[in-house]
């Protein structure tokens, strides 16, 4: 179906192309209200959408930045997207794509074809060398955050994952827990490996190892599916590597009428906005997601403005948010 052009709008409104262009670009003050109304009505009836590439050619340059995340549904990434959209300057357009490992190359191609001038990767890049060569050849800078914790060759925003895992272990140990389960996703990304390392390292300072290690999918259903093994392990606490899985675990324990934290303490990771609405409210390690998104966007725009800048890295701390889902270990002898 032929794309509606500005010429079609002018013809339908009975005015010149120049008049349509000026009115639709808020420069039509010299036209009467009736003319403006006719143009807007013709535009809406025809469903005309200005061609941004053509507009860029006319010097009203809006920079287009692509952001690739693994999922739009996971609250962590939804918040990243929201924070970028909310902080985008008026001369920058953003386009967001969700992609799996398998569809990542296609996602990159499609964004490059749409004319993105820079990319932000909020998901793991399996074939980094290939992606790097492809983007370098096209002079498209990119920034990595979150799941690409160990790339040092690019602009990056990181959080202190190791410390986050360590905080979770310290918190549970401070409550007297020694039989602590670790629940983590099947496909462990760089940042989650660091989270796990911090947790194991802190356990080891007390000569502890996890009572059990359960791998599942990075989702609420994944958490739910882990509950049987968690109960079987007789752990008194569990560190779960993101809030979504932790929410699934809470649901599964509730189905079995197992009380949190009386029977078992649960700590998650992210502090997405669900955490404080759970029953019980979820103790977790808070990532500054909003700042991560805003900062990542600022940095990649700075890279576009100054291509030869030295490497940019931003490092954010995480923090322990204690709520109802963690409590002192129950003394098996019955006295607290
Ligand atoms: O909830 C999504 C998880 O995957 C977060 O912990 C984030 O760090 C991402 O890696």
From TrEMBL:
Domain of life: Bacteria
Matching CDD domains: HTH_LacI
Domain HTH lacI-type: 4-59
Pfam family, one: LacI
PROSITE patterns reported in the protein's UniProt record: HTH_LACI_1, HTH_LACI_2
Record keywords: DNA-binding, Repressor, Transcription, Transcription regulation
GO molecular function annotation: DNA-binding transcription factor activity; transcription cis-regulatory region binding
Cited InterPro entries: HTH_LacI, LacI/GalR-like_sensor, Lambda_DNA-bd_dom_sf, Peripla_BP_I
PANTHER family (UniProt xref): HTH-TYPE TRANSCRIPTIONAL REPRESSOR PURR-RELATED (PTHR30146:SF148), LACI-RELATED TRANSCRIPTIONAL REPRESSOR (PTHR30146)
Protein name from the UniProt record: HTH-type transcriptional regulator DegA
């Amino acid at each position: 179906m032929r794309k509606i052009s500005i010429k079609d709008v002018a013809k339908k409104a009975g005015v010149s192309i120049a008049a349509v262009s000026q009115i639709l670009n808020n420069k039509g003050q010299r036209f009467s209200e009736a003319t403006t109304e006719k143009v807007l009505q013709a535009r809406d009836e025809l469903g005309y959408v200005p061609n941004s590439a053509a507009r860029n050619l006319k010097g009203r340059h809006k920079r287009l930045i692509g952001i690739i995340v693994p999922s739009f549904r996971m609250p962590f990434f939804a918040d990243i997207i929201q924070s970028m959209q909310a902080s985008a300057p008026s001369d920058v357009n953003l386009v967001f794509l969700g992609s799996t490992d398998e569809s990542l190359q296609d996602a990159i191609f499609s964004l490059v074809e749409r004319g993105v001038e820079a990319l932000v990767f909020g998901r793991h890049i399996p074939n980094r060398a290939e992606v790097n060569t492809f983007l370098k050849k096209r002079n498209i800078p990119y920034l990595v955050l979150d799941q690409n914790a160990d790339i040092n060759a690019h602009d990056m925003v990181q959080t202190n994952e190791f410390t986050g895992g360590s905080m979770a272990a310290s918190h549970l140990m401070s409550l007297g827990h020694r039989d602590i389960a670790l629940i983590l996703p099947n496909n462990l990304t760089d940042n989650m490996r660091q989270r796990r390392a911090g947790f194991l390292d802190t356990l080891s300072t007390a000569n502890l190892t996890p009572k059990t290690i359960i791998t599942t999918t990075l989702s609420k259903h994944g958490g739910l599916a882990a509950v049987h093994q968690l109960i079987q392990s007789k752990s008194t606490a569990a560190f779960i590597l993101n809030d979504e899985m932790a929410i699934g675990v809470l649901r599964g324990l509730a189905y079995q009428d197992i009380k949190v934290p009386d029977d078992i303490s649960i700590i998650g990771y992210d502090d997405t906005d669900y955490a404080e609405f759970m029953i019980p409210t979820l103790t977790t390690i808070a990532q500054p997601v909003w700042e991560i998104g805003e900062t990542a966007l600022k940095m990649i725009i700075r890279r576009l403005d100054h291509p030869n800048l030295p490497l940019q890295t931003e490092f954010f701390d995480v923090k322990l948010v204690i709520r109802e889902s963690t409590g002192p270990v129950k003394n098996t002898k019955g006295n607290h």
